[in-house]
Amino acid sequence: MKMFLRLLLFPFAILYRGLTGFYHYSYDKGWKPSIEFDLPVISVGNITVGGTGKTPHIEYLIRLLKDKYSLATLSRGYKRKSKGFLMAGEQSSAKEMGDEPYQFYAKYGKEIHVAVGEERAMAIPAILNAVEDIQLVLLDDAFQHRKVKPGLNILLTDYKRPFYDDFLLPAGRLRERRDGAKRADMVIVSKCPDKLPEQERAQVSKKIQPYTQPDTPVYFTGLKYTTPCSLKEKDSGESFKNILLLTGIAHTERLVEDLQEQYTIVEHLKYRDHAEYTPSLLKSIRTKYQSLKEKLGDLVILTTEKDAVKLQDSSLDTFVSDLPFYYLPIEVYFLQNGEQFDARVLKYIEGERSKEA
Description:
- The protein has 357 residues and is α/β, with parallel strands linked by helices.
- It is 37% helix and 20% strand.
- The protein is globular.
- It has helices at 2-28, 54-65, 94-97, 99-108, 120-130, 198-208, 253-260, 279-296, 305-311, 317-320, 338-356, and strands spanning 41-45, 71-75, 86-87, 113-116, 136-140, 152-158, 186-190, 218-225, 229-230, 242-247, 264-270, 300-304, 325-328, 330-334.
- The chain folds into two domains: 40-222 and 334-351, 3-Layer(aba) Sandwich (Rossmann fold); 227-328, Rossmann fold.
- The strands form two sheets. It has a nine-stranded mixed β-sheet, with helices on both faces.
- One of its GO terms (molecular function) is ATP binding.
């Protein structure tokens, strides 16, 4: 059935290939200009739709760089309720900034600057105008955005959904042709199993290399969930066993697999990616929780870090404050050569900064 549907959509994929191909060809040939800035600009993105782990990888870079440089993150702010350029501040919210940018601000807002703007070529000068000492910009999900030419382009591809096995929209999930990967300075295969054999890593790298520039390094990362945190309290919540799982993310398979090793998932309330938590939705979640709680006794609501930033909106306090909400912090780790990756990033930044001096 899946193959039949793909064949049915193939003519539309050809049309899409023509449109996106001309767009990228125009930039490759210089018919459309790409702006370069006089400071280090690092882009993290993908060529597929759906989650490849961009947010935790941006956060990895934030942790690597925040104590060394004055940096700003710039995101489009997908599905936010506002328009134009905005810098995050104390009065900001996930609705105004978007889920991921507000998560950056909630976690690192005292150490970095967080901005959103649909037009990145205009947003970067706006950041530099708003903050005098910015030394570095991290672009979130900007691999297809050709108006800005980053100095370091990091391409992510999901281990279970590699771009080299995929097809163009709408027959597949590719935003552009596979050889768009040639713009990448580094490729990261994300969401890998903890113990991925070296032989398999070599095979995956070999399948990636025909689409990249020669000698483009390929790295492999996994995701680890740390101790659950209470949404309102400071306790870690280590004592609970039964969970009502609440998610509004693109892919939940790995999360569910990991949780099942430690907890009993009584029920999974699975909503679409970037789901909006409204009072009416939270009322239904409350009803579900209370019904299950009566039967089980021991029960908490566990959600993702991405969902948690939306649930912390002050307008939802009435519906959230008296329920045992917990969230799972998530971090990226390298299966190997993490120090090499860090060194390449730092070498690029220092090289760019030496040009400015």
